[in-house]
Amino acid sequence: MSQIENVSRRRFLTGGIIAAGALVLGGRYYRKLSGGKLAHDTNADHATLHPSVYLGIDPDGTVWIVASRSEMGTTSRTTLPLVVADELDADWKRVKVEQALGDSRYGDQNTDGSHWIRSFYDTMRQAGATARLMLMQAAAKQWDVPATECESDLHVVVHRATNRRAGYGELATAAAKLPVPKREELKLKPKSAGRYVGKGQVSYDLEALVTGKAIYGMDAAWTAWCMPRWSTRPFSGAK
Amino acid sequence: MIQLKVNGVEQSFDGEPEMPLLWYLRDVLDLTGSKFGCGAGLCGACTVHVNGQATRSCLTTMRDAAGKEVTTIEGLDKDGLHPVQRVWMEINVPQCGYCQAGQIMQAASLLNSKKKPTDQEIDEAMAGNICRCGTYQRIRAAIKAAAGEMT
Ligand code: FES
Ligand code: FES
To answer: How do the domains of chain A map onto residue ranges?
Structure first.
């Protein structure tokens, strides 16, 4: 039983009110709910290479990154995925950010207390570093060279000595067959090697924000599900 | 029966004539880009164009909107690339974005009537649009930049 199904109406209402000002760009979640099933999966979950709940890589090179904190307007939906992308050495243009589902594996998903960077920075880096290492190991195996001689370079793995390169997408299937490395095996990149963090990236949702397409808590509509929604009278004073 | 045009499409409405236009846009037409902030004309989050003029849709009744042409953020430009929207992206104006549909509609209306607004004119026109995130400096810079782009 997932957490959201067990949640009491009272707790649900509280959550709803807290989230009223938050961006809830969880369209998939809504569709799943309205389909009557609560299937807990994201595109990242379905991706070929999926070493962490926070990301997945498809053979076409698409990198899915799960935003596991609710967006309260402080761009956590951009910043945390950006940390993953930086450590993965992914091309941000090929990253698709998706909102986490209502599932306990992501924790409470709160964005309160200004702690999400502090609390999740290392976790995000580890998620990126895990996938990056697996991709390098897969390439090393294919090229029959030591993995330590391979490097990443913006969405590709390179072996400079033999001048070979393979895209993340191409390597995803082979990498998925490898065991997920332990935390101790990960080598995080030095901060100076980052492409994005601290360089002033714009919000992933910028276009949605200026076109009225961004869905906020109060915009979310559930059709086939009994949802507490603000029931408004046609005008004030109306019965 | 109330007839009106919303984003170029003819609509008819036979509900309460006193219903605010904002309710109609959001709950009936599902155009949720216009936001509810105060419902009392104090914040500007609900700003749309009525016959080309920036108007608070929370204070506009359906009766008032009868026979009018309403434009919302969704209909400002079919590709979402009105000069104001383009500049808003270039300058990275929004933070949370909640107020921004209102800000953009207000700014677009200002630039329709004044090609090169002064700082004071910008401040006056935008005074009723509140931004909780405090993006005011970027809004002003963006309006000036957009003024250069709109011919
Ligand atoms: S909602 Fe209309 S001015 Fe605040
Ligand atoms: S951008 Fe957040 S309220 Fe204006």
So the answer is: 9-38, 49-210
The answer, yes or no, to whether any atom of ligand 2 lies below 6 A from the CB of B103, is no
Q: Are residues B55 and B116 in the same domain?
A: no
Chain B residues within 8 A of A205 when measuring between CB atoms: 97
- Rg (chain A; Cα; Å): 20
Per residue, the 3-state secondary structure of B39-93, as one string, reads CCCCCCCCEEEECCEEEECCCCEHHHHCCCEEECHHHCCCCCCCHHHHHHHHCCC
**What confidence tens digit (pLDDT) does each residue in A210-222 have?**
999 999 989 987 6
- pTM (predicted TM-score): 0.83
Shared domain for B93 and B57, answered yes or no, is no
- State whether the beta carbon of B131 lies less than 6 angstroms from ligand 2: yes
Residue of A nearest to B132 (CA): A73
**pLDDT mean for each 10 residues of chain B (151 residues):** 97 96 97 97 98 98 98 97 97 97 98 94 97 97 91 60
| pLDDT tens string A45-90 | 999 999 999 999 999 999 999 999 989 888 999 999 999 999 999 9
Pocket-testing residue among B34, B46, B48, B98, ligand 1, by greatest number of atoms within 8 A of Cβ: B46
Containing structural domain, residue B88: 83-149
Task: For residues B101 and B60, state if they share a domain.
Answer: no
Q: Do B87 and B69 fall into the same domain?
A: no
How many angstroms away from the CA of A31 is the closest CA of chain B? 17
Residue count of chain B: 151
CATH code of the domain made up of A49-210? 3.30.365.10
Q: How far is the CA of B83 from the centre of ligand 2 (A)?
A: 20
Numbers of helices and strands, H then E, in chain A:
8, 7
Q: Name the closest residue on chain B to residue A220, using Cα atoms.
A: B32
- Per-residue burial over A77-109, b if 16 or more Cβ lie within 10 Å, else e, is bbbbbbbbbbbbbbbbebbebbbbbbbeebeeb
